[in-house]
Amino acid sequence: MADTSDGPVLVPILGDQLTRDIASIRGRTKDDTVILMMEVWDEATYVKHHKQKIALIFSAMRHFAAELEDAGWTVDYVELTDEDNAGSFTGEVARAVERHDPRAIHVVEAGEWRVQQAIEEWPDKFACEVEILPDDRYICPLADFNEWAEDRDTLRMENFYREMRKRTGILMDNDGKPKGGEWNYDEDNRASPKDEMNPPERPLFEPDEITRECIELVEDKFGDHFGNLDNFGWPVTRDEAEKAADAFFKERIEKFGKYQDAMVHGQDDLWHSMLSTSINLGLLDPLELCKRAEQCYEDGTAPINSVEGFIRQLIGWREYVRGFYWRFMPDLESNNALNAQRGLPEFYWTGETDMRCLADSIRSTRDNAHAHHIQRLMVLGNFCLLAGINPREVQDWYLVVYADAYQWVELPNVAAMILYADGGKLASKPYSASGNYINKMSNYCSDCKYSVNKKVEEDACPFNSLYWYFMDRHRDRFEKNPRIGRIYSNWDRMDGDKRQAYLDRAEQFLDTLIPADSSWAHAE
Ligand code: FAD
Ligand code: DLZ
Ligand code: SF4
């Protein structure tokens, strides 16, 4: 639409775009630009986010706005409690257009489908020119992902990851071969935890006045949301995020690889980086982090299995799930290939279960707005898969409870990786496991009320019977799967009574589950 204004360019910066290097700010001049940042009710309430997540995002937004202002930018910052808050991004942009009469709006595409749909309506809604710029903080542009995916029957992260290694040159020798000789050291990422495990503590950042105000705001307006704020120590500025990264590269990357899949009761961080919140907000650049990891290998301060494992998560999994999300949205949200219909158990919100692995993972989730990958995948996720929990309820839960949760990264991990709801587009087999796996990778089972070595008795680990209940239920689908199909010969070797006892025990256990009230995830 033609516009005659000679006003400034309006640059809306969304809550997960907190870097001066974002495409809509980069290259702009300060005297010709108004940066708009908006705390809006729609974003804070489309699910009832963990309290720490809202406090983190608002505090990081406010700090970033202050940083921009200090650097001489004009920032129009709308607080949630501003009297005229319009409640939505589009409503706030409309109000800002009234205030500033911009000649154009430059916005970087949203991370999430819901928000991007709204942004795509702006060219028709506003009289000025609207330019929607690609988000080049990601290493793989969406067009390149689609080109890579186009001719393939199956998408596999490993193939994508190798392409990304070649494209970035990260951890590559000059002759085009992977450094260390192998592409993937996954098998060296699975050491069982040992008694003497003693990981260094990660830095926690004392809330400053801005963060304290955000915490108060959250207690006041979102007091009934899941989680507690007592342990809030997330980095909220680039400086703090860099300190957190420094601590990881100095103290924890060495053992990151070895214990990547380990779980220890009460030890929430282990050797993980705890950087996902900062990366997703835009406070840290993933490619820079990969280069720093590679430098640790070059310097001899971290072994190849740690460095490769860390880099694989960032240029492999993170980029892969983002491409996957945009390729398969909006269908991905409603996929339910395994026809899972059971309600999410209430204990996912209360933590009240005798299953020690689940109770500890939920406790960490509630107290820290965080659980590490293998808890999310092989404890919390595995249970939902085996018990046949409805994907929509599981998606809501994961989106609510983690401080790093944005739908573009949460949904592929939940719908496709843990629940196989996409029918196997993302993963070649379901991540289903009995109690044996959890016992091997953790110290949970030794003090659990259930016995991991028992199969069908009342005090037998529920994962054991649920595992066969799941495999039996989906035999038609998985029997011919080369990666998992041979498990059925074990099932068939058991006598009929034993098989029936497994199925009965699973059903008896499932009957004890109390479904959660939907008000945990959504306002009434
Ligand atoms: P580290 O173990 O130190 O890993 C380094 C980085 O790699 C992470 O910071 C993250 O940026 C990236 N990464 C690792 N695994 C993945 C993955 N599977 N997908 C994408 N990036 C990955 N991560 C999120 O950022 N947001 C989510 O909403 C989210 N939901 C998840 C849901 C499920 C069911 C599962 C199985 C995983 C999910 N993850 C999500 C991925 C992963 O669990 C977290 O990124 C990780 O636990 C964050 O902690 P960390 O920074 O210490 O990670
Ligand atoms: C998650 C979130 C919340 C709780 N609140 C806001 C907000 O008030 N303003 C904002 O800009 N962003 C918020 N976010 C993050 C957005 O949901 C995020 O910007 C989208 O994921 C973009 O797609
Ligand atoms: Fe979890 Fe089963 Fe081990 Fe208990 S026995 S901690 S329920 S795996």
Radius of gyration: 24 Å
Provide the succession of SSEs.
EEHHEHEHHEHHHHHHHHHHHHHHHHHH
Query: Structural class per helix/strand content?
Result: mainly alpha
Q: Given the structure, what is the number of helices?
A: 23
What can be said about the biggest beta sheet?
Answer: 5 strands, parallel
The proportion of strand residues reads under 5%
User: How far from one another are the termini?
Assistant: 40 Å
Which kinds of small molecule does this entry bind, naming each only once? flavin-adenine dinucleotide, ligand DLZ, iron/sulfur cluster
Helical proportion, percent range: 40-55%
Unreliable stretches covering 5 or more consecutive residues: none
Order of adjacent strands in the largest pleated sheet:
3-2-1-4-5
Overall pLDDT confidence: 96
Count the strands? 5
Shape descriptor reads: globular
Structure, described:
- The chain has a five-stranded parallel sheet, with helices on both faces.
- The two termini are 40 Å apart.
- The protein is built from 23 helices and five strands.
- Helices cover 48% and strands 5% of the residues.
- It has 524 residues and is mostly helical.
- Ligand DLZ is lined by residues 14-16, 38-40, 43-44, 49, 54, 57, 110-112, 115, 406.
- Residues 14-16, 38-40, 43-44, 49, 54, 57, 110-112, 115, 406 line the site of ligand DLZ.
Topology:
Elements: E1 9-13, E2 33-38, H1 41-45, H2 51-70, E3 74-78, H3 89-100, E4 104-108, H4 113-119, H5 122-125, E5 129-133, H6 142-150, H7 157-168, H8 209-221, H9 238-256, H10 276-281, H11 286-299, H12 304-328, H13 331-334, H14 347-350, H15 356-368, H16 373-387, H17 391-401, H18 407-418, H19 435-441, H20 462-473, H21 475-478, H22 487-493, H23 496-511
Parallel strand pairs: 1-2, 1-4, 2-3, 4-5
Helix pairs in contact: 2-8, 7-12, 9-12, 11-12, 12-18, 15-16, 16-18, 16-20, 17-18, 20-23
Bound molecules: flavin-adenine dinucleotide (FAD), ligand DLZ and iron/sulfur cluster.
Ligand DLZ binds next to α1 and α2.
